[in-house]
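ASSEMBLY PREDICTION REQUEST
Request ID: AP-0331
Submitted by: J.K., bench scientist
Number of chains: four
Total residues: 426
Priority: normal
Notes: Please return the full assembly, not individual chains.
Input sequences:
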Amino acid sequence: MEKNDISISVIKRLPRYYRFLENLKNNGIIRISSKELAERMGLTASQIRHDFNCFGGFGQQGYGYNVPELYKQIGDILCIDSQTKAILIGAGNLGKAIASKVFVGDRGFRLVGIFDKNEAISGKVIKGIPVRHINYLENFCIDNSPECAIICIPSNDMKELTDLLCKLGIKYFWNFSNYDIAMAHPEVLVESVHLSDSLMTLSYLANSEEGEG
Amino acid sequence: MEKNDISISVIKRLPRYYRFLENLKNNGIIRISSKELAERMGLTASQIRHDFNCFGGFGQQGYGYNVPELYKQIGDILCIDSQTKAILIGAGNLGKAIASKVFVGDRGFRLVGIFDKNEAISGKVIKGIPVRHINYLENFCIDNSPECAIICIPSNDMKELTDLLCKLGIKYFWNFSNYDIAMAHPEVLVESVHLSDSLMTLSYLANSEEGEG
DNA sequence: TAGATTGTTAATCGATTAACAATC
DNA sequence: TAGATTGTTAATCGATTAACAATC
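STATUS: Completed
Returned structure:
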């Protein structure tokens, strides 16, 4: 794959393109120009064409882009149909939300196991998958070789857990904790969601706005 | 406030600085140089000094930065101690997670109300706050004038809800839905968390990595 | 004082935008 | 063919990094 020369800023825009195109497609729109898509998304037409061209250009001069086709193409770029096996660590409210919402419709991953250290919820079933006690993590990974771990626990126990998961062959982390996995394990790939950072950003913006005209 | 000329890239780094400094402080470290902080955070020393200087520079030549003081300063910049009143819309798993986790320790906001359209959970208490039926939203806002709304519901009903919330004086949105509030209401301030986008980014990266050396 | 490290400007790098030739 | 709109290069803009004088 020659994907590695695509800049991260372009990559970060792909899922949003995908969502907008999904929406257009669901509304029966089959053709769109970079100009109109730009207006809908709050971008420039130039940027949209530039972005799509990183992957070869899916448009047609004088016509624009075919929505279902472009949607399919971006989905393929995102490998939306791949089924990378993922396990969820932490079945609290956040873990449950992630398991039941975000995996709906599959976004490149397939949830195969859920683990929690709280024995009281062992055996409960979320989206058809039983919650296992964390003690079974090691054997489960040996038997099923998941490649992705979704971290929905606090940072406290993360060092030991991360070391173990890496040892067990986990290569991709979707990390909701504030533990810095990438710093400790530069060999794995980490996508982090820092909820508190997002809230603090809003706090900054909300309070800085007040002085405006 | 003269905050408005600070670039968004700097702002987005502030919460991470804040977390790292909190950690250093909790570990009893009282002095740090830009060089050492850079190593710990995976940034350049130059960038750190440049960033801090946007706000006036909190260091001392030949010494470095005083950790507790810098921590305090960045907290102040983020207005971490402000208590902007916030309401939560949607008390499903995600809403519960947000209410019970992220607001712990306060990050510039104070949760004052929780609403859900599901009558079955009306009256349940989360973090000391009763869940109210969504029908009471309007009166509650008139009585309590919250300025921030946290959106933890799917995009379906968002248009009407957003229009109503804006009419009721909500100025800041922490948006977990995929509905584009900012596009519909350019007058308000929106910080969005697109969980599915984050997962799709990981899917892209995971699948593009395979071809690497 | 000498050493260390900041604050700050200048240089570099990368990302976005503008422009236009190619072409449907 | 004429009009529209892409693909693609060049120009601009902004962010990051390097360098060093200021100074603790």
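REVIEWER COMMENTS: The first strand of chain B starts at residue 31 and ends at 32.
SIGN-OFF: pending second reviewer
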